[in-house]
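USER:
Before I trust my own judgement here, I would like a peer's view. Write it directly below this note and I will take it from there.

ASSISTANT:
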Amino acid sequence: MSPASVRKILRLPAVQAKTGLGRDSIYRLGRQGLFPARIKLTQRCSGWFEDEIESWLAERAAKRGAPERAA
């Protein structure tokens, strides 16, 4: 596997720092399917792929200037 194809995994504190979201919000959004799915590393340890978090943030930034649609 080449170094360019290695995906970095972020633990919860890094995801919180990168997104500005709290633990409860991250897990709630994940359950709702509105946040990248976590990766179960061990029985008591999870993480998220950094590139998926970056993509999620980019989507939020792209929507920032878009007009709100009525539901």
Notes: Residues 8 and 50 are 6 Å apart (CA to CA). The longest helix spans residues 50-63. The first strand starts at residue 9 and ends at 10.
